[in-house]
Amino acid sequence: MIDLAIVIPLGISSPGTPVFQYLKWCVESLQNQKTNYNYKIIFACDDNVSDEVKDYLKSTNYDISWYDPYYFFRKGSIWKKIFLEWEKVNSKYIAFCHYDDMWSENKIQSQLDLMNFNELDLSWSAVQVINEENRILSGDMASRNALSKNTVKIGQSYAFSHSTILSKDKFLNCGILKYLDQSAAIYEGLHYIFCHKLKGMKDPNSVFYHRVHGFSVSNTLHTETEELSKIRKIAEYSLNDVITDKDSINVESIIKEIYP
């Protein structure tokens, strides 16, 4: 059993993605971790990405799982890819990192030390925003030091799910899998809510760097273009399906189950 498995989901979520330089910086930030824990990187990649990206992934000698094109727009979205890879791997802890983001070089060591020393199921790091050139644009955006009945009502802090490292067994058995296929539109919020079922705390000494850039899908997804409609048709998951699935999840009921 390895200590940590990190899944990087990849695909064409908007024209020009994945941006090759961002991918390299992301992978290098994970490769350059200063840690005595053993960890592995797993790519969950759609098979219609560019040859440049495919060749680079193969050159790393890390595990690659190939998925159908435009998986971001399919039922369950990229989160389903991440969970499928988590379920397959034999590791104590799990995490994911989007291809355009980065980790501080002490993230694995610092968070896993914190979790092991305090017998935690979950930890999350500080979060800072970076731009296209890796310049830091913000202070710490992670506004939760602990999780409680009060924080679940307030809502998640910035990029919370991205910064978490989780106990594989505890998280995959916390109940979130029940909602995975329907959660494309609200997964990050559900991740935050279900983390309240775990014993966790913030590690202020490590950092998750969240990149903002013009190619980000968050900048384009809110507008239903003709091109996007064609992609959804290929993925066989319409915008109406996405909304219907989202509305089928009773978030308040889930919160009441955690905090009766």
Task: Write structural notes for this entry.
There is one protein chain. An eight-stranded mixed β-sheet has the order 3-2-1-4-7-6-8-5. The model has no long low-confidence stretch (mean pLDDT 95). The radius of gyration is 18 Å and the shape is globular. With 260 residues, it is of the alpha/beta class. The longest helix is centred in the first third of the chain and has 12 residues, at 20-31. The protein has one domain: Spore Coat Polysaccharide Biosynthesis Protein SpsA, Chain A (Alpha-Beta Complex), CATH 3.90.550. 37% of the residues lie in helices and 21% in strands. The protein has helices at residues 20-31, 51-60, 77-88, 107-118, 149-154, 160-163, 168-172, 187-195, 226-235, 239-247, 251-258; strands spanning 2-10, 39-46, 63-67, 91-96, 102-103, 122-130, 164-167, 200-211.
Task: Name a few traits of the molecule.
11 helices; globular; alpha/beta; 260 residues; 21% strand; Spore Coat Polysaccharide Biosynthesis Protein SpsA, Chain A; single chain
Number of strands: 8
Strand content: 15-25%
**What's the gyration radius in Å?**
18 Å
- What class would the helix/strand composition place it in? alpha/beta
State the name of the first-level CATH class. Answer: Alpha Beta
Give the name of the CATH architecture. Answer: Alpha-Beta Complex
Number of domains: 1
Order of helices and strands: EHEHEHEEHEHHEHHEHHH
Helix content: 25-40%
Average residue-wise pLDDT? 95
Oligomer status:
single chain
Sheet with most strands: 8 strands, mixed
- First-last Cα distance: 36 Å
Based on Cα principal axes, name the global outline: globular
The CATH homology group name: Spore Coat Polysaccharide Biosynthesis Protein SpsA, Chain A
Report low-confidence residues grouped into runs of 5 or more.
Answer: none
> In CATH terms, what is the fold-level topology?
Spore Coat Polysaccharide Biosynthesis Protein SpsA, Chain A
Q: Counting H and I runs of at least 4 residues, what is the number of helices?
A: 11
Q: Which strand order do you get reading across the main beta sheet?
A: 3-2-1-4-7-6-8-5
